[in-house]
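input
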Amino acid sequence: MGVVFSKIAWAGQEVVPVPEDPVAVATASPSTVKVGETVSFDGSGSYDKDIKVTWQETESGWKYNFLEVEIDGVVKKWEWDFGDEGSGSGKTISHNYQNPGEYTITLSITADHEETASTTVTVKVIEPYISPDSREIEDGQDGGSFEVKDDEGVSEWQWGWEVLGGAGNNPNVNFNPDNGDPTTVTTKWYAHPDDPYGASNSSTYTIKCQVTINQKKIAAEPGELTVTVPWDEGGYVGPLNITGRPTFASRIVRKGLFRKTEWYIKDQGAMERTEPQVTIYVPTSSQFRNKTEVHENVHVEQYETGMLSDLWVVDDLWDRVKDLTAPTKEAINNAYNREWEWYRLEQLLKVWERKDAVEREAYSISNPISPQYLYMKRLD
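output
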């Protein structure tokens, strides 16, 4: 800066300068960082400036020719206040911040004549993180949207995923877009461990995003996406039944000299074997839907033409009740009900006795169908 001079020296000597304040210059690089990343501060641009005064003789007397020039000023001390209760000294220095926020950094310099100056720079400290940090969906459901929060200064996003080692069933996550924010995901359940008979029905992906700040790639705090297969039972075929009732009729019968009214079962009436009713719990969007449908349809075939086709047969029930008689309509109805209940229990017992063979046959067909993890049974 300019000087005031205290005395003049003769014979061409320079005046003695009295210095003014120096100039503090500070830079921070980068000015936006992630928590824990290092910021470099540079105060080497700070300077001091002197004015030299020379004289010359003219016809009208002594004149002074003032010439202002920058010369090497001597800055002898640089003190830094980092705005987070941290401090340091030096022409250049580095610092890292452990908490997000906007920090004002003060550089104070001292020159050779103890004159001082200060300046400030600002650093933005961010902690980009993926939101939501966790989500749970069912296999086949839309994975929803994820985005990076606290991402001021981010210029690029690159999404990715990760699973534990030893995973089966080809884990995968698709991002749309994979280089923008926010993004939507589609995914599926995968097997962990990679065991056809021991995989968990819950699998978790780590959702990751690498962001670019100040041309530097850093990782946002990850999120989690858990995919479950919550249907403990994939489906079932309900037990068959015989609906409707036979035709009850009355007639006059003679017994010696006496006649009496007798109720009997005339014909099968509305008796009918029901069709196998299939219930599938696994939704059509799940990768396990086809596997469970095939399995339950095997049971349908077993009732229609296979090892269960001899159960719930109208003719068999008819043979049990066709000779029933009773003195009243109420009595014949009660007699039929008793026989029907015994028949029903016998049929259910036969289904129970055959269940291992029934399931073994169904699993022998559905086990090989992909995915070969859940809804399976070891047959060896």
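quick obs: The mean pLDDT is 90.
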